[in-house]
Design a protein that fits this description.
426 residues; 3-stranded antiparallel beta sheet; 10% strand
Length: 426
């Protein structure tokens, strides 16, 4: 025992284990260095040597894997989330992604689990938060957004050694089935009804780009004439139009008494467009002949509007503009879509349902998967998953499959008639 009590010099990086004067076993485990460069050691104590050795080995494994908690005062979940969303996420993600993260952090995560220490957060804490959110009226999709945000933020905390595990990666988010409305793409008849109504409106080609080619709203509103080659019948998608964000321009106290977006002196604080982030999103899309005709007519109409507006015209390179020039607002575009459906007598639906329609029509026409992926802008690695989500099996496709089975098993229809006559004679 006397030999065990004696402290011995150990190699750098090796843990020291000894029996203290208090009768308990102690260990000093090297964990790296503090911010000021001085060595950092964790002190452990257990009643028996075996218990202590087991704990030392566990801690050394965390240290070697980079998952051990770093020195300093532990982060609370609230402090970490607020630091992460502003200083880590905001500089590297898009404005829209940041806006989603910020709302999830401020509205749901900080009030719900913010007081916990980040290294003591458990999956059950998050699952309880999701249940409370739904009990308070939030949809499962909102809880999923909070879950994804927490998983990303806590994953970064684990990577930096502030927590040993990602509680959100272990937590089970609520099921989405009840919230997800089955998407029913528009039929060919409905698309033709929309086409008849579209021809009566400004920016008519805008809606056919969505229904025929599946362009996203941001891609369509971000199109510039330099992206459109009508002679060679294709267009290039390079950027997305962002939803505007404004701040008051009349002072911090907002003396105008309005929301920032309606302030007479409002200031735009978000850029108009951003480049498409993925290689698949930056793509060339072929234009059907009728769409080429529509875009030529649209360009001529835009030139007449510019001439009529004179000095009131806001010059821009956008293909689709407001009546006095300048880019279309995504919000205005959304309401125009709703009015188009109503005026055409077509059932209500999301603007994004037009994208589902275009993808399904491409499949119905037998366009190869690789070409569909190119037109829709899907990454090769996730294209199969996106096709499963966007391409819908319609009734005509099912009926055609039934006819093919009929021909394969029972033969041609005339053979069936002969067989029936023979059965009747028998």
């Amino acid at each position: 025992m006397a030999e065990e009590k004696k402290r011995t010099r150990r190699a750098n990086g090796e843990s020291a284990i000894y029996l203290g004067k208090d009768g308990r076993w102690h260990a000093r485990v090297p964990m790296g260095y503090k911010d000021d460069g001085t060595p950092y050691r964790r002190h452990l104590t257990r009643p028996t040597r075996k218990e202590l050795v087991d704990e030392v080995r566990r801690l050394e494994k965390q240290r070697d894997e980079g998952s051990a908690r770093q020195p300093g005062k532990p982060w609370t979940v609230a402090k970490w989330l607020e630091h992460w969303v502003e200083n880590i996420a905001r500089p590297v993600v898009s404005e829209n992604t940041y806006a989603g993260y910020e709302v999830a952090v401020r509205v749901h995560l900080v009030p719900g689990i913010g007081r916990h220490r980040i290294d003591r957060l458990e999956p059950e804490h998050l699952e309880s938060l999701y249940r409370r959110m739904q009990s308070a009226g939030s949809k499962a999709g909102t809880a999923h957004q909070a879950h994804r945000t927490a998983r990303t933020a806590l994953g970064e905390a684990v990577r930096r050694g502030h927590a040993a595990k990602n509680a959100a990666a272990l937590a089970k988010p609520p099921r989405m089935e009840e919230d997800e409305k089955e998407v029913e793409p528009y039929s060919v008849d409905e698309v033709q009804s929309l086409l008849l109504e579209v021809n009566k409106r400004r920016n008519s080609a805008r809606w056919m780009l969505a229904l025929a080619l599946g362009l996203r709203q941001g891609e369509t509103l971000g199109l510039r004439w330099s992206d459109v080659d009508l002679d060679n019948e294709y267009l290039k998608l390079r950027r997305n139009r962002l939803r505007p964000k404004y701040e008051h321009g009349c002072g911090e106290a907002a003396p105008c008494g309005r929301k920032a977006g309606y302030c007479p002196a409002r200031v735009q604080v978000r850029r108009e467009t951003k480049n498409t982030k993925s290689r698949a999103g930056r793509r060339a899309v072929p234009l059907p002949g009728p769409l080429v005709v529509m875009l030529r007519s649209h360009r001529e109409a835009q030139a007449r509007e510019r001439a009529a507006a004179g000095n009131l015209w806001t010059e821009s390179e956008y293909v689709f503009t407001k009546p006095l020039g300048g880019p279309l607002s995504p919000n205005t575009d959304y309401h125009d879509w709703k009015r188009l459906l109503e005026d055409a007598g077509v059932r209500d639906g999301r603007l994004h349902d037009a994208r589902h329609t275009a993808g399904t029509v491409l499949m119905l026409l037998g366009v190869p998967d690789r070409v569909i992926d190119q037109i829709m802008g899907w990454e090769p690695g996730g294209a199969a998953r996106m096709r499963a989500r966007y391409l819908h099996v319609t009734d005509p496709m099912l009926k055609e499959a039934a006819r093919k089975i009929e021909r394969a098993i029972w033969g041609a229809p005339e053979n069936l008639a002969v067989d029936k006559d023979q059965d009747n004679e028998a």
